[in-house]
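Quick review question:
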């Protein structure tokens, strides 16, 4: 009986090690495709979990302040923002124009303290707009405000070079790329 238990445990260890190795190989390959370091990639169960992890994770590490989201965010972002409001965060909605592009003048005014984080949908599938990430990112960096991008609709449709983007967090999911449901990711800039 003890021999059978030892054999079963050895088999389980071998399977576990093989799975861990495959996960790390996948992390290296995917991070490379997204222009990121492998330690910047966190796997999640999908885009919604990645968005929640980004917002709730960052906001749990700093004192409450103001969170900015646009008027056209995904329900996952709106839900995470509501949770943060219940924890003492101020929520401000940044307006968009008729094409769904962020109002950069309004954003500039809202980037003042106590703003700590802007969460923005990069590509909005219902409106078809792509946000001016470079211009928005530069404004956030100048103000010392973290920027999270919901890139679920963008990853796989245009090249991503996370190392070159002026963003701190980027969420994505596999099923929008013809991949399996139940797999997503969050890129978290080192530091």
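Suggested answer, residue by residue:
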């Amino acid at each position: 009986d003890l021999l059978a238990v030892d054999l079963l445990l050895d088999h389980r260890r071998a399977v576990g090690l093989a799975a861990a190795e495959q996960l790390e190989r996948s992390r290296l390959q995917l991070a490379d495709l997204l222009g990121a370091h492998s330690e910047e990639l966190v796997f999640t169960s999908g885009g919604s979990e990645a968005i929640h992890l980004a917002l709730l994770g960052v906001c749990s590490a700093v004192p409450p302040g103001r969170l900015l989201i646009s008027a056209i965010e995904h329900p996952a972002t709106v839900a995470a923002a509501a949770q943060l409001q219940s924890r003492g965060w101020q929520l401000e909605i940044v307006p968009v124009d008729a094409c769904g592009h962020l109002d950069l003048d309004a954003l500039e005014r809202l980037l003042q303290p106590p703003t700590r984080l802007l969460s923005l949908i990069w590509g909005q599938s219902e409106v078809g707009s792509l946000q001016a990430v470079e211009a928005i990112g530069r404004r956030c960096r100048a103000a010392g405000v973290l920027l999270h991008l919901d890139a679920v609709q963008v990853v796989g449709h245009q090249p991503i070079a996370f190392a070159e983007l002026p963003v701190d967090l980027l969420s994505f999911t596999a099923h929008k790329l013809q991949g399996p449901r139940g797999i997503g990711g969050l890129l978290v800039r080192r530091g």
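Why it works: The mean pLDDT is 93. Residues 2-33 form the longest helix (32 residues).
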